[in-house]
TrEMBL record, chains A, B:
GO molecular function, one term: N-acylmannosamine kinase activity
Region annotated Disordered, chain positions: 1-22
Native organism: Rhizobium phaseoli
Domain HTH marR-type intervals: 28-75
Single GO BP term: N-acetylneuraminate catabolic process
Residue ranges of coiled coil: none
Protein name: ROK family protein
Amino acid sequence: MNDSRPIRAKRGTNHEGTSAHNRRVMIDALRINGALSRADLARATRLTKQTVSNIIEELERDGLVSSQEAVRKGRGQPSTPYRLVPEGAFAVGLQIDRHVTRAVAVDLVGSVLVRDEAGLSPGGPSQGAKVILDLVASVRSKLAGVVGQSEKRLVGLGVAMPGPFGVAGSGDDPWMMEAWQKFPLVETLTAGTGLDVDLQNDAAAAATAERMVGAAHGLDHAVCLFVGYGIGAGLILNGELYRGANGNAGEIGMALLFADGKSTPLEHRASLASLYQHLSADPADPDLHARINDLALSGDRGIDAWVEAAAVDLRWSIHLIETLFDPQTVILCGSAPEALVNKLIAAIGPLLPSIAERRGRILPRLQPGMADPWSVALGAAAGPISHAFDPRFAAILKDSL
Amino acid sequence: MNDSRPIRAKRGTNHEGTSAHNRRVMIDALRINGALSRADLARATRLTKQTVSNIIEELERDGLVSSQEAVRKGRGQPSTPYRLVPEGAFAVGLQIDRHVTRAVAVDLVGSVLVRDEAGLSPGGPSQGAKVILDLVASVRSKLAGVVGQSEKRLVGLGVAMPGPFGVAGSGDDPWMMEAWQKFPLVETLTAGTGLDVDLQNDAAAAATAERMVGAAHGLDHAVCLFVGYGIGAGLILNGELYRGANGNAGEIGMALLFADGKSTPLEHRASLASLYQHLSADPADPDLHARINDLALSGDRGIDAWVEAAAVDLRWSIHLIETLFDPQTVILCGSAPEALVNKLIAAIGPLLPSIAERRGRILPRLQPGMADPWSVALGAAAGPISHAFDPRFAAILKDSL
DNA sequence: CTTATTAAGTCAAATGTCTTGACTTAATTA
DNA sequence: TAATTAAGTCAAGACATTTGACTTAATAAG
């Protein structure tokens, strides 16, 4: 009956795929350009005026776009610009970190409407899952308080946590949150919330956030170097987040550096974890963030020494990212205190020579991105929004989620 | 009239895009699985039997697929498998190297039908262009001799040459083929041949070849580490060659390594160029390839020393590729003599620990790929074939070339 | 002030591609 | 010999985009 080997093939598409894509293209165009008339959209997407009119009408019925006042610009009938309706969709984002978990609710344009956090006691995932589910429930009810009907327009739950995922662990590496790696988190959250759950590592989440509302807005090729408790790269390639074969692409923190005859992962040299170790600080201390900001501002010797050393590794990381990914720009972001990020950026320059030194370059090679403890949770929430509304190859194909 | 800033948007799609994609999906499925019945194709692509029938009929009319003898496999009407017709399409591939240029003609399934080469005297691009155009013309006429009607089915001219492209040059770096970088090669070849011209760097071409007929066949996430006169990585991400924002993604040869207090590009340490320098050999010597193969086989001390040193850098390169791209597998390929490649692979193992060490891994982390002086030209030719027949996001969209 | 021109947007019919459901064909199994 | 299973076809239907003519509403020109 069944032939020996399974048949491997890509999926076909049909009318639904076509119109789904065209709807996404409209939303994307409005997101990038702000507000556009039907005629503008038709020209930009190469679709006909009539098609655009049909789709816009449908999007308006669905509450995703709305018209603005007509504008007169020269001869001809005035055009009616359309814009995205922020309340058209919502998503909840969740950052699971070592000691805390943060949740936000965002709208279609990426504005944060609700934020809340909870401590993660060392009870491990099974206890932690309860805390997390309560936190999500709390954010959902607060969101409902801010905007009615939000539940109907909730497109999913995005989760960000440190990677890598599914790797044969070294057994006792405290940097890897081993217990969480083995826990069936996505299944638990799906069952516990009834929402579609989208998991990414925190660097990817940071990149997703930068693409929706930050420095990567409208860019199709950008890499976010994320410096948090760990370090990683979030990859925007061809206009989509690139995850790799197993969701671990960009885990640059695992890259081994050779110096002084031994090899060390980048993560042990240039990350907040390494800074905490350098300062003998307790990562669980809730005031640590503020204190490090103050220390950075006051020119603390310990901080400066770490910054100098980390800058060398970051400079090289950026060089490597430019060399391998050839992005339009590299964005330095993180959950580090702002003053520290500023010091880092100052210390990183000048950049190493690379293929990024092109004639006619427009964007800077390195740009600062968000450095806010909440940016990862925001990026987590941006995941489901992007999944639901951004133009993606997979979204055209049949049977794609 | 014109609004201030141009509107940026992705393109929409329509019926033509749909059917173009579905045709490509069929061809792709046949390429990967060998031969499939209409019912198999319908199941694999999630399209209906009827749609598949219509498309197969059309592909058969176009001479791209043909039916095989019906096979009985259990109850029910016997199925009629369809396969790709090799003579359904052809492409010419061109490798432009420092001292020679090679051209091949391949068919739809990637078989090389004609090969020819010519020396590139140091006269520079303007003289070289004439040699190249003559070579292409020669290959085309030989192809016409082998198969009639080939010109009608010629989908394009693929060109591979060392990158990077468009980078603000260091002025006098002999490794960069500076003069060729400035020459309007694509325009000249388009005008001189009347064909669509597709340019990629040689590592990308090697990856394209591996994907069509080599170790990356059917894989959606694979990286080819190409060791030739230079060194580079060809990236297959999400089933397509990834080129980066400027066509320079994967140029790992430009990566700077720090050791002994100074920085050196990887290309100066692990490439045939570095080997030639190590051996004080003349790269222009036509017998060099064979001689190095012999030296490698005979256990030459100089070769072995270079292999040991290069293996360290290659081991690290593979580690870095695994860490940043998270591919299903890494393929080591090149235009190096086979005996040398074998030595290198032996010397590279064991690999460094990385996120590629997963539970339930199926493919090996490192696989040997093609190591044939003609593989780059083959990959160059595979470019237009892939462009014309592989499922690609861009091919669905309107006005896409 | 009137008319021509330009551009946005709508209407209704046509087109193209996939889908649906019934049907035919041809094998194996009971 | 009849029932079952599966491949493949036929004809009608569904759906989204396209086409071309038309309406609306502004500015520019005479």
